[in-house]
Amino acid sequence: MKAIIITQLGEPKVLQLEERPTPAIKPDELLIKVMAAGINRPDVAQRKGNYPPPAGAPVDIPGLEVAGTVAQIGADVTRWKVGDKVCALVIGGGYAEYCAAPQGQCLPVPGNLSFAEAASLPETFFTVWSNVFDRGQLQPGESLLVHGGSSGIGVAAIQMAATLGHKVYVTAGSDEMQILRRSGRCKSYQLQ
Question: Are 33 and 99 spatial neighbours (Cβ–Cβ below 8 Å)?
């Protein structure tokens, strides 16, 4: 398969296209034919040498988010079938034609989104869901305070909590807050 690899640490020009073996999947994994990959801050930091890949990740193929179609399923996979459209959060290896992903880290591609749009979902939405709903146990009737509401994680938290009926309070210290105000999703109050 073709993969974008980090040939050495540095600027974007160190990323090169090379041939690599297609990943072998474990019993609980999917092999995804990648149609789009997200670009995240950790991918850039890894390229610069400021973010070591997690244990078990391909050392020189970055990419934490992918979207594509299921090409193969492991023996223990029950939710997915070959041909399904999925997006996934992976430990690396997303900048390639194929990427292995644990079935629990995959989501269906929403019908109204392109693969490119779906590839931008897993990192932020899994992070918000894990922290706000799994760990934080946000309950019906409770409000959510989002610090840094103009960040990608902040915007996702606002959208998810508001969609589920929660009152959302937001802090932000930059001009990007204007986007949130114009959207009607939050009101701004200036502290004196």
Answer: no
The predicted-structure confidence for 45-104, as pLDDT tens digits, reads as follows 999 999 888 888 888 999 999 999 999 999 999 999 999 999 999 999 999 999 999 999
3-state secondary structure at position 99: strand
41 and 133 inside one domain: no
Range of the domain at 89: 2-119
The pair phi, psi for residue 128, each rounded to 5°, is -65, -50
> 114: helix, coil or strand?
coil
Same domain, 29 and 107: yes
pTM of the model: 0.81
**Beta 98-102 vs 106-108: how paired, if at all?**
unpaired
Pairing assessment for the beta strands 29-37 and 2-6 based on DSSP bridges: unpaired
- Number of residues assigned to the chain: 192
Whether 192 is covered by a domain: the verdict is: no
Do 166 and 82 belong together in one domain?
Answer: no
Cα Rg for the chain, rounded, in angstroms?
Answer: 19
Residues 34 and 87 in one domain: yes
Question: What would the pLDDT profile of 16-35 be if each residue is shown by its tens digit?
Answer: 999 999 999 999 999 999 99
Structure-token pair, residue 169: 């309070």
**Same domain for 41 and 114?**
yes
